[in-house]
Amino acid sequence: MTLAFDNSYARLPERFYARVTPVPVSQPRLIKLNEALANRLGLDPEALRTPEGLAMLAGNQVPEGADPLAMAYAGHQFGGFVPRLGDGRAILLGEILDPAGERFDIHLKGSGRTPFSRGGDGRAWLGPVLREYILSEAMYALGIPTTGSLAAVATGESVLREAGALPGAVLTRIAHSHVRVGTFEYFQARQDTDGLRQLADYVLARHFPEAQASDQPYRALLDAVITRQAELVARWLAIGFIHGVMNTDNMSIVGETIDYGPCAFMDAYDPHQVYSSIDQHGRYAYHNQPPIAQWNLARLAQALLPLLDPDPALAIDKAQAAIDGFVPAFEQSYLTCFRAKLGLLEEHSDDAELIAGLLRLMSTTGAD
Question: pLDDT tens digit string along 239-284?
């Protein structure tokens, strides 16, 4: 099938990624096609259901105009820095423009080994694919910025995990961007200031053109990312969502929820609730999500220091001032979300106290 690809990330220098081809699967079968999302993107759902469309969604055929690649990035995982992560089981197939001219990534998750697989098989099994499909759709319906799921495809092959042989699947993920905080950390770790600048200029031009016009564009970029993340996490808390693995490589630079691993919507309210079996110390518990987001953003600010100011002391001052802006931005978004939930049509100075008191009661009684 024909898609109008325009692959801007693939035009960056090759140290930003590794060019790879999806590994074909034996018996692809369409499990679910998101027709509403396809229509929003200007794609023909019927064409996606054809053998040619299924071959693209499974990774068996690279469509004309695509330029598949695995993106390079680093990341802080549970506080520890890993200088080289990257797409170990996913491939950026390319970018398309929707009917309004908005740019979206088409990403195949579970599409086989890449140079970043670190010994893994590069595959996904059906359970996590269905979970991401369902949860991303739920988040979209709730008005939360999120990546989207275009299709889930069974591969007809098994993948080996601790539980034994499990059915394999491929998810087609749609996002405004797959650039992460960890992408900036990747170039910082290599002391590649030129690459860092190229990445920042790319993100400015593609996602934050208003910041690009600023007299301090890199500071404006940092401020814009902080604001979006503050708003996103406030919305998570307002619906009882726990991401579960808020590593810096799981934090989208454009403020979309990404990588639905061990995550959940909390039922009985418990601010200390954790939804990751490996998070034994509650680093990513529900109530820790705002400070962890700020901590992650501080890692972004640290990576951007060479761009913020040639004077190291002034660069640190600018970074700290930006990071200090997270708390008021989060608190304002948090109040906005909870005022709406409680039907508070007018703002009052004691709204925050009212909301906090309600949540204490909910915690005591285990209310939903």
Answer: 999 999 999 999 999 999 999 989 999 999 999 999 887 888 899 9
Q: How many CB atoms lie within 10 A of CB 172?
A: 28
- DSSP H/E element including 316: helix 312-324
| Cβ neighbour number for residue 84 with a 10 Å cutoff | 14
Is 259 considered catalytic here? no
**In which residue are the tokens 């600023």 written?**
214
- Among residues 223, 249, 259, 279, which one is catalytic? 249
Cα separations in angstroms, 101 against 21, 92, 96, 246: 27, 19, 9, 31
Q: What whole-number distance in Å separates Cα of residue 34 and Cα of residue 45?
A: 8
At residue 175, the 3 state secondary structure works out as strand
In this prediction the pTM is 0.96
- Would you say 80 and 100 are in contact if contact means Cβ atoms under 8 Å apart? no
The helices-and-strands tally (H runs, E runs) of the chain is 12, 12
What is the Cα–Cα distance from 129 to 111, expressed in whole angstroms? Answer: 12
Q: Is 4 exposed, middle or buried (0-12, 13-18, 19+ CB in 10 A)?
A: exposed
